[in-house]
Hints:
heterodimer, A: Rna Polymerase Sigma Factor, Chain: A, 65% helix
Amino acid sequence: MPPVAPLTDEILLRRFADGDRSAFDELFCRYRSMAYRVAYRLLSHEADALDAVQNGFINALKHLKRFRGHSSFKTWLLRVICNAALDIGRQRKRDERFPSAPIRPALNEFCSATALPVDAGLERDDLRRAVDAALARLPAAQRQTFVLHVEGGLTYREVAEALGISIGTVMSRLFYARQKLKELLANYQPT
Amino acid sequence: MTAHSPHPFDPSPRDPLAAYIQGDPRAVKAVAPPEPGPTAWEATRLAIQAELFATPKATHREPLRGHDHRRWTIALVTVLTVAAAGLAGVLLYNHFAQPVAPEVQLAERSPAPREIPSAPASTQPEEHPETTVLPIATDDDVVLHRVPGDGWLPVGRDLLPVVIVLATPEEVKIDETLSGAWPHVVPGPDAAPMIFAAKPR
């Protein structure tokens, strides 16, 4: 018996609009990992990233009327996730300025303004930390563009749609982001 | 929250960081952050579901008792009736009570009313909601590329937006020069006057 093709996003969204909870479960399962990776790369914090995923899904599905279908649901969702992550990032900065609770330690363990220090024998966690630290040093717009393209797997056109910018700007931001990341990660040599 | 990372590290990219920067899917997977565990995912899913499928809360209101409900109904009907009667009265009065003005024969006709010019149209551009706030580009939004040729990029508005009309030789009058400080003025091609600066001595 041939395998049943998975339901398309359009069908799931229509079912969700009709109140089908299983449609939401399927959409959540389908996009949660990608949404988490994007949010994590923007925030470098696991709990905040999970909050961004939660808020992003709620906003995206609550305001489905704003999704006119010009882009894919994935692009729309990632756009909302990015905005949710930015909101959480701003709130975190405000909390750090006026802390009412103990400040969570930042993931960026490198304080120098130049390239990151040499550290031989990187394992996987070190690689992740290096990437997180380097991404945190990018300007927000470049980081957002890079993360959506590399982690979210969006094409240039989809990134442009998600961020409301031109394809030329996407290419330009990616170019400068890659240059900066190469600079920051230049001293790392994998074993 | 505990991290949960099941997949092994793929050592195939020789330089995983460089490969990650270029968007190599294997490198992206290799340096992917650890995903939340099943418990965290389930909690997130339930929280989202609760928000999306929440039934609207009924407004807490004590049900009206029988006689209160009747009293309110009677009061409402009375008010509506009085209002309708008042409105009908006003309409009837306006229709029947207007006096008919007798025709008056004037000895002189008053001059024709002076035409009042209409107020000039506003010079302010019509405001549209989408243009009331002009978005300002940030540093990250502006990218300057090298301009071919001399490499200069004019920025700003044109100081001379209109077409410059050059004077003809007949329109230019050279006053008496100071001991030959002014050179001889000759018309150039197409009768455009050309003034050559004197060479410094």
